[in-house]
Amino acid sequence: MGERVKRETGFYDLQISIGTDDYEANFVDRSEVGYIYQLTKNGDVLLQATAQFTTYDPNLNLWNMDGTLVWELGGMQPVIFVDGENLNETYRLEGSYFPYQINGNLIFVARKNGRYSIVYDGKFTGPEFDAIEMAYCCAMVPLVRGSGQYWFVGSREGKTYLVSIR
Prior knowledge:
The protein is mainly beta.
Protein backbone atom coordinates (compact mmCIF):
# COMPACT_ATOMS: atom_id res chain seq x y z
CA MET A 1 0.00 0.00 0.00
CA GLY A 2 1.26 3.47 -0.85
CA GLU A 3 2.71 5.79 1.75
CA ARG A 4 0.87 9.06 2.45
CA VAL A 5 3.14 12.12 2.35
CA LYS A 6 1.80 15.52 3.44
CA ARG A 7 2.88 18.38 1.18
CA GLU A 8 3.07 22.11 1.81
CA THR A 9 -0.18 22.41 -0.18
CA GLY A 10 -1.93 20.74 2.77
CA PHE A 11 -2.83 17.77 0.58
CA TYR A 12 -1.45 14.25 0.87
CA ASP A 13 0.37 12.63 -2.00
CA LEU A 14 0.80 8.87 -2.30
CA GLN A 15 4.09 7.14 -3.07
CA ILE A 16 4.95 3.52 -3.81
CA SER A 17 7.77 1.58 -5.45
CA ILE A 18 7.24 -1.46 -7.65
CA GLY A 19 10.53 -3.09 -8.59
CA THR A 20 12.88 -0.28 -9.58
CA ASP A 21 10.06 2.13 -10.49
CA ASP A 22 8.79 4.89 -8.20
CA TYR A 23 5.16 6.01 -8.54
CA GLU A 24 3.40 9.03 -7.08
CA ALA A 25 -0.21 10.18 -7.09
CA ASN A 26 0.00 13.94 -6.55
CA PHE A 27 -2.34 16.87 -6.06
CA VAL A 28 -1.41 19.38 -8.78
CA ASP A 29 -3.89 22.25 -8.82
CA ARG A 30 -7.49 23.36 -8.45
CA SER A 31 -9.70 24.06 -11.45
CA GLU A 32 -13.29 25.14 -12.06
CA VAL A 33 -14.38 21.48 -12.23
CA GLY A 34 -12.40 20.07 -9.30
CA TYR A 35 -9.00 19.11 -8.03
CA ILE A 36 -6.38 17.95 -10.50
CA TYR A 37 -4.19 14.95 -9.70
CA GLN A 38 -1.36 13.34 -11.63
CA LEU A 39 0.01 9.83 -11.53
CA THR A 40 3.74 9.74 -12.25
CA LYS A 41 6.29 6.99 -12.82
CA ASN A 42 9.89 7.94 -12.07
CA GLY A 43 8.85 11.60 -12.36
CA ASP A 44 7.16 11.23 -15.78
CA VAL A 45 3.40 11.90 -15.95
CA LEU A 46 1.42 8.76 -16.82
CA LEU A 47 -2.04 10.27 -16.51
CA GLN A 48 -4.01 13.16 -15.09
CA ALA A 49 -7.45 13.01 -13.49
CA THR A 50 -9.84 15.45 -11.84
CA ALA A 51 -11.81 14.75 -8.67
CA GLN A 52 -14.43 16.89 -7.04
CA PHE A 53 -13.37 17.28 -3.43
CA THR A 54 -15.97 16.39 -0.83
CA THR A 55 -15.45 15.89 2.90
CA TYR A 56 -12.43 13.63 2.46
CA ASP A 57 -9.17 13.63 0.52
CA PRO A 58 -10.03 11.96 -2.81
CA ASN A 59 -6.45 10.69 -3.30
CA LEU A 60 -7.37 7.46 -1.54
CA ASN A 61 -5.01 4.57 -2.25
CA LEU A 62 -2.04 3.52 -4.32
CA TRP A 63 -1.47 -0.24 -4.28
CA ASN A 64 1.01 -2.77 -5.57
CA MET A 65 -1.12 -5.81 -6.38
CA ASP A 66 1.33 -8.49 -7.53
CA GLY A 67 3.34 -5.95 -9.53
CA THR A 68 0.26 -4.16 -10.89
CA LEU A 69 -0.22 -0.50 -9.98
CA VAL A 70 -3.75 0.28 -8.71
CA TRP A 71 -4.75 3.89 -7.93
CA GLU A 72 -8.07 4.79 -6.32
CA LEU A 73 -9.24 8.40 -6.73
CA GLY A 74 -12.49 9.28 -4.95
CA GLY A 75 -14.78 12.29 -5.16
CA MET A 76 -18.17 12.66 -6.77
CA GLN A 77 -17.32 10.02 -9.41
CA PRO A 78 -14.79 7.64 -7.85
CA VAL A 79 -12.45 5.88 -10.26
CA ILE A 80 -9.89 3.10 -10.12
CA PHE A 81 -6.90 3.08 -12.47
CA VAL A 82 -5.10 -0.23 -13.08
CA ASP A 83 -1.69 0.27 -14.71
CA GLY A 84 -3.10 3.53 -16.13
CA GLU A 85 -6.36 1.99 -17.41
CA ASN A 86 -9.47 3.89 -16.26
CA LEU A 87 -11.93 1.19 -15.13
CA ASN A 88 -14.89 3.59 -15.42
CA GLU A 89 -14.14 3.96 -19.13
CA THR A 90 -13.32 0.27 -19.68
CA TYR A 91 -16.57 -0.98 -18.11
CA ARG A 92 -18.68 2.15 -18.87
CA LEU A 93 -19.24 2.78 -15.17
CA GLU A 94 -20.60 5.68 -13.16
CA GLY A 95 -18.08 4.84 -10.45
CA SER A 96 -15.56 2.23 -9.30
CA TYR A 97 -14.75 1.78 -5.63
CA PHE A 98 -12.64 -0.06 -3.05
CA PRO A 99 -10.17 -2.17 -5.04
CA TYR A 100 -8.69 -5.27 -3.45
CA GLN A 101 -7.15 -8.53 -4.55
CA ILE A 102 -8.33 -12.06 -3.80
CA ASN A 103 -6.46 -15.08 -5.15
CA GLY A 104 -4.42 -12.81 -7.42
CA ASN A 105 -7.54 -11.25 -9.01
CA LEU A 106 -8.81 -7.68 -8.71
CA ILE A 107 -12.17 -7.19 -7.00
CA PHE A 108 -14.07 -3.90 -6.69
CA VAL A 109 -17.53 -2.34 -6.44
CA ALA A 110 -18.95 -0.95 -9.68
CA ARG A 111 -21.87 1.46 -10.19
CA LYS A 112 -23.57 1.15 -13.55
CA ASN A 113 -27.03 2.40 -14.56
CA GLY A 114 -27.61 3.48 -10.95
CA ARG A 115 -27.09 -0.05 -9.57
CA TYR A 116 -24.15 -1.62 -7.77
CA SER A 117 -22.32 -4.84 -8.60
CA ILE A 118 -19.11 -6.60 -7.74
CA VAL A 119 -16.50 -7.05 -10.46
CA TYR A 120 -14.07 -9.91 -9.84
CA ASP A 121 -11.37 -10.96 -12.28
CA GLY A 122 -12.84 -8.66 -14.95
CA LYS A 123 -16.38 -10.09 -14.74
CA PHE A 124 -19.55 -8.79 -13.11
CA THR A 125 -20.22 -11.34 -10.36
CA GLY A 126 -23.31 -12.10 -8.28
CA PRO A 127 -26.53 -10.11 -8.03
CA GLU A 128 -26.95 -6.36 -8.47
CA PHE A 129 -27.76 -4.19 -5.48
CA ASP A 130 -29.78 -0.99 -5.12
CA ALA A 131 -27.08 0.21 -2.70
CA ILE A 132 -23.82 -0.97 -1.15
CA GLU A 133 -22.67 0.73 2.05
CA MET A 134 -19.27 2.31 1.47
CA ALA A 135 -17.68 4.70 3.95
CA TYR A 136 -14.90 6.93 2.69
CA CYS A 137 -15.52 9.29 5.53
CA CYS A 138 -17.94 8.85 8.38
CA ALA A 139 -21.36 7.73 9.64
CA MET A 140 -21.75 4.69 7.40
CA VAL A 141 -21.13 0.99 7.63
CA PRO A 142 -17.67 0.39 6.17
CA LEU A 143 -16.81 -1.98 3.36
CA VAL A 144 -14.10 -4.22 4.82
CA ARG A 145 -11.26 -5.80 2.85
CA GLY A 146 -8.30 -7.73 4.16
CA SER A 147 -6.95 -11.20 4.94
CA GLY A 148 -8.19 -12.42 1.54
CA GLN A 149 -11.78 -11.34 2.28
CA TYR A 150 -14.14 -8.66 0.96
CA TRP A 151 -17.15 -7.85 3.18
CA PHE A 152 -19.97 -5.40 2.53
CA VAL A 153 -23.60 -4.63 3.34
CA GLY A 154 -25.83 -4.43 0.27
CA SER A 155 -29.54 -3.91 -0.20
CA ARG A 156 -32.00 -4.73 -2.95
CA GLU A 157 -35.78 -4.86 -3.12
CA GLY A 158 -36.04 -3.63 0.47
CA LYS A 159 -33.88 -6.40 1.95
CA THR A 160 -30.42 -6.00 3.48
CA TYR A 161 -27.62 -8.53 2.99
CA LEU A 162 -24.24 -9.01 4.60
CA VAL A 163 -21.95 -10.36 1.87
CA SER A 164 -18.60 -12.04 2.38
CA ILE A 165 -16.40 -12.92 -0.59
CA ARG A 166 -13.31 -15.06 -0.02
